[in-house]
């Protein structure tokens, strides 16, 4: 039995412990025409009554697919080529805009994805009702908005308000290279109609009612607070459902995709368990994972729904689908519940998510789990992270807009790989006791809000202090290559009971933070020390009963960002341990002789 929407709205308000007025409501009524490959409908929105607004501004995301010349497609050459070949472009048009019942379309201008409606000077004085009548044409084999045959993935499919900043100014994301859909948090009240032979999958448990007709089935959804509202449709979807803790996982697949389903379910369960225990509760309580015929191999995250590219029955020879599933599930925490501007500060979205992906992947599959393996050749996820991170070292700082990178390779290397290793370094330096406190603090402070790099830094200072915040500033804001190394390890016998050990420690990258090192001695013992020097090159001298065999920097692997691990150790070369034994014997003989002579 479906609950009435008023009851569900009350439940949502209580569930998230928010005042009902904390988030605006977007009401969407729309129909999918599967023959024409388009969606048409109306979006209803009430302007905030406490803002003096001269314009109402909104996003028309599908216009990123409208021609080969859009900034978005120029940054996606594969997608651009497919659309050029198929000529099945996407777009969005607004036919009418009603303000308190009056059509003001003549006051509206549209440029690319930006819609601007000039308001009458007195409109701000009341909570004006806006109705946008729209039509969206779907691109064939797109990314987040796409169709292929009878498989549909709908994201950004209706116009949404631009982001209204605290200063009363509207913000429009720059949909260019390496960009994702950015929006504000809303309660989504959606009525969506589609042919009755289609399975319609929405976010989590958002479906509250359905009414089947001869030509169309009407689905009612209520969902939020959330950044987005996506749908997936296919007439051949089957479903596999499972429970992990108090959360539900639904996997929607075609019959030829079933062989991979148990592995995806296992990965999703592990990711939800880990994130719940170490970061915070999953707010939406249910998540749907769908296979989609999108135009690339990978996945896309939406609030409470994940799209994975179809394996199309091909055998899985690696753990890539597990890794992909974990990555998209982690996004439910960092993107879904803790929002950010994924275009201006993509590391807050992708670097943090990839850090947790690696952490979960290695916890449950071990640090040797293969991302790819064939005929005995194996590449782990950490191997790929470190390899990719070194490709563009020093090319770009981690905190910079996605569209400012020199290309997609530089973007992915910096954000997904070097960024993840930088976040891992910060996490390691926090230590086992402070790390969970930090992540829970950052999560709770920014839940259902757009976090900023400043919010991340403040959480570091709150939990750990200024010194680690300085490391964060260097790692995230500077285009640096971090490399710690040691060289020139040598020993000198002082007397029969003491040896002087000397080596050179090098710091590249300007990091001002202690680094641990360990001396391994010839008698089998080891000694642990810490260097607190600020110098790029430092000569370190110790005295010990036994000479050193080798020295190892960062033995606990805290500095994941270190670009070259091969120079983190040094051995005494050439091997002069026999000489030391001879020297020690001679020294003992001389000291004994002097003692004897002195005794006379």
Overview of the structural elements:
The protein has 600 residues and is an alpha+beta fold. It folds into 4 domains: 23-234, Sandwich (Immunoglobulin-like), CATH 2.60.40.1730; 236-333, Neutral Protease, domain 2; 373-477, no CATH class; 483-586, Sandwich (Immunoglobulin-like). The protein is built from 11 helices and 34 strands. It has an 8-stranded mixed beta sheet. A hairpin with a 5-residue loop joins β12 (163-164) and β13. The longest helix is centred in the last third of the chain and has 38 residues, at 408-445. The termini are far apart.
Strand and helix layout:
Blueprint: H1 5-15, E1 24-33, E2 38-46, E3 55-59, H2 71-74, H3 77-86, E4 91-99, E5 102-103, E6 108-111, E7 114-118, E8 129-137, E9 146-148, E10 151-154, E11 160-161, E12 163-164, E13 170-171, E14 186-194, E15 199-201, E16 207-212, E17 217-226, E18 231-234, E19 238-244, E20 247-253, H4 261-278, E21 286-292, E22 299-302, E23 305-309, H5 320-330, E24 338-340, H6 350-365, E25 370-374, E26 377-380, H7 381-391, H8 408-445, E27 449-451, H9 453-463, H10 466-477, E28 483-495, E29 498-508, E30 515-521, E31 526-531, E32 537-544, E33 548-553, E34 569-571, H11 577-599
Parallel strand pairs: 1-14, 20-21, 21-23, 24-27
Antiparallel strand pairs: 1-2, 2-8, 3-7, 3-11, 4-5, 4-8, 6-7, 9-10, 10-18, 12-13, 14-17, 15-18, 16-17, 19-20, 22-23, 25-26, 28-29, 29-32, 30-31, 30-33, 33-34
Helix pairs in contact: 4-5, 4-6, 5-6, 6-8, 7-8, 8-9, 8-10, 9-10
């Amino acid at each position: 039995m479906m609950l009435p929407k008023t009851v569900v709205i009350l439940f949502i308000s209580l569930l998230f412990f928010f005042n009902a007025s904390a988030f605006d409501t977007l009401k969407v009524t729309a129909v999918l025409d599967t023959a024409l490959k388009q969606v048409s409908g109306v979006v209803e929105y009430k302007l905030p009554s406490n803002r003096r607004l001269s314009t109402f501004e909104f996003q028309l995301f599908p216009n990123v697919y409208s021609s080969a010349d859009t900034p978005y497609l120029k940054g996606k050459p594969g997608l651009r080529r497919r659309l050029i070949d198929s000529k099945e472009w996407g777009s969005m048009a607004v036919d009418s805009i009603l303000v308190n019942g009056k059509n003001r379309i003549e006051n509206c201008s549209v440029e690319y994805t930006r819609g601007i409606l000039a308001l009458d000077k007195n409109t701000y004085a009341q909570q004006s009702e806006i109705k946008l009548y729209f039509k969206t044409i779907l691109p064939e084999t797109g990314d987040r908005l796409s169709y292929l045959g009878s498989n549909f993935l709908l994201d950004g499919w209706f116009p949404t308000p631009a982001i209204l900043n605290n200063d009363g100014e509207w913000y429009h994301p720059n949909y260019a290279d390496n960009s994702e859909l950015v929006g504000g948090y809303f309660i989504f009240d959606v009525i969506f109609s589609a042919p009755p032979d289609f399975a319609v999958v929405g976010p989590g448990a958002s479906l509250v009612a359905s009414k089947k007709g001869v030509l169309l089935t009407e689905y009612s959804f209520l969902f939020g607070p959330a950044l987005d509202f996506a749908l997936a449709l296919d007439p051949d979807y089957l479903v596999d459902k499972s429970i992990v803790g108090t959360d539900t996982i639904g996997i929607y697949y075609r019959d030829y995709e079933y062989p991979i389903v148990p592995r995806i379910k296992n990965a999703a369960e592990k990711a939800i368990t880990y994130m719940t225990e170490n970061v915070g509760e999953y707010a939406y309580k249910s998540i749907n994972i769908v296979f989609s015929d999108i135009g690339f191999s990978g996945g896309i995250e939406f609030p409470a729904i994940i799209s994975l590219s179809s394996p199309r029955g091909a055998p899985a020879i690696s753990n890539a689908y597990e890794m992909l599933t974990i990555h998209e599930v982690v996004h439910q925490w960092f993107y879904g519940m803790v929002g950010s501007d994924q275009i201006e500060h993509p590391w807050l979205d992708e670097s943090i998510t990839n850090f947790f992906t690696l952490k979960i992947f290695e916890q449950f599959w071990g640090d040797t789990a293969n991302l790819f393996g064939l005929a005995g050749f194996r590449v782990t996820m950490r191997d790929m992270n470190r390899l990719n991170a070194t490709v563009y070292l020093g090319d770009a700082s981690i905190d910079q807009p996605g569209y400012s990178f020199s290309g997609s390779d530089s973007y992915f290397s910096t954000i997904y790989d070097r960024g993840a290793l930088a976040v891992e370094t910060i996490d390691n330096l926090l230590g086992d006791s402070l790390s969970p406190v930090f992540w829970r603090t950052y999560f709770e402070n920014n839940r259902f809000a757009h976090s900023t790099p400043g919010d991340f830094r403040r959480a570091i200072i709150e939990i750990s202090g200024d010194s680690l915040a300085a490391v964060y500033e260097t790692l995230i804001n500077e285009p640096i290559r971090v490399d710690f190394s040691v060289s020139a390890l040598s020993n000198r016998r002082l007397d029969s009971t003491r040896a002087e050990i000397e080596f050179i420690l090098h710091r590249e990258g300007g990091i001002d933070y202690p680094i641990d090192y360990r001396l391994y001695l010839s008698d089998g013992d080891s000694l642990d020390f810490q260097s607190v020097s600020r110098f790029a090159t430092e000569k370190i001298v110790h005295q010990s009963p036994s000479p050193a065999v080798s020295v190892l920097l960062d033995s606990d692997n805290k500095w994941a960002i270190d670009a070259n691990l091969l120079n983190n150790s040094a051995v005494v070369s050439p091997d002069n341990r026999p000489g030391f034994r001879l020297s020690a014997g001679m020294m003992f003989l001389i000291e004994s002789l002097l003692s004897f002579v002195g005794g006379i």
